[in-house]
């Protein structure tokens, strides 16, 4: 039930864009995105709901394709502070909180 | 400011010991979770609780049990620690009935020797 994230790792220069993908083999009710910096706890970025509603970060955008059971996180004009590991969490039970997290995508932004 | 605290940042235990990991949240959240995080495997849910004395198994409950006697406290118990339980353990909480963020604690890095 663990969603699949791609790529596993990406290195960017400051100002470049990146896309992180998350796909599930099961129907999704919502997709949640978190970022974890080295040595810190994961921090919530965004939630995407069936029907298109989004809640979260104002500088990071995401999409949710319900039919394809996929979500993508878009990091535009990346900043050094974007470095970290990004996790998607998928809700397949409509509980709204019991999530299955992917293995993570490591993002490094260099000067 | 919301807060989830965990009893220890680092813990070293011997094989066969009984281990208690404690998590406390001060946000009056109904839902609490225990995850373990291993390199290359991401976050895997061990157990969660949606109310006092209620618990549900996650994806990897084997070798673990939990206790929730008070709303603010959720304990993870390793009845007989083994070396393959060496990991980072993260606790999280979220309010009931919201599609919102999980608040994570700082984690406990457990080493079983």
Account of the protein in words:
The complex is a heterodimer of chains A (111) and B (113). With 111 residues, chain A is mainly β. Chain A is 0% helix and 52% strand. Chain A has strands spanning 4-6, 9-13, 18-23, 30-36, 43-49, 54-56, 61-65, 70-75, 84-91, 100-101, 105-110. In chain A, strands 2, 4, 5, 6, 9, 10 and 11 form a seven-stranded mixed beta sheet that branches. Chain A has a four-stranded antiparallel beta sheet with strand order 1-3-8-7, with no helix packed on it. Chain A is globular, with a radius of gyration of 13 Å. The termini of chain A are far apart. The radius of gyration of chain B is 13 Å and the shape is globular. Chain B has strands spanning 4-6, 10-13, 19-25, 31-38, 42-49, 56-57, 65-70, 73-78, 87-94, 103-104, 108-112. Classes of the chains: A mainly beta (111), B mainly beta (113). The interface between A and B is medium-sized, with 24 and 28 residues.
Compose a concise summary of this entry.
The complex is a heterodimer of chains A (111) and B (113). Chain A is an all-beta fold and 111 residues long.
Residue windows where pLDDT falls under 50 for at least 5 positions of chain B: none
Number of strands of chain B: 11
What percentage of residues of chain B falls in helices of 4 or more residues?
A: under 10%
Task: Tell me the strand percentage band of chain A.
Answer: over 45%
Largest sheet of chain A: 7 strands, mixed
C-alpha geometry of chain B? globular
SSE map:
The complex is a heterodimer of chains A (111) and B (113).
Chain A: E1 4-6, E2 9-13, E3 18-23, E4 30-36, E5 43-49, E6 54-56, E7 61-65, E8 70-75, E9 84-91, E10 100-101, E11 105-110
Parallel strand pairs in A: 2-11
Antiparallel strand pairs in A: 1-3, 3-8, 4-5, 4-9, 5-6, 7-8, 9-10, 9-11
Chain B: E1 4-6, E2 10-13, E3 19-25, E4 31-38, E5 42-49, E6 56-57, E7 65-70, E8 73-78, E9 87-94, E10 103-104, E11 108-112
Parallel strand pairs in B: 2-11
Antiparallel strand pairs in B: 1-3, 3-8, 4-5, 4-9, 5-6, 7-8, 9-10, 9-11
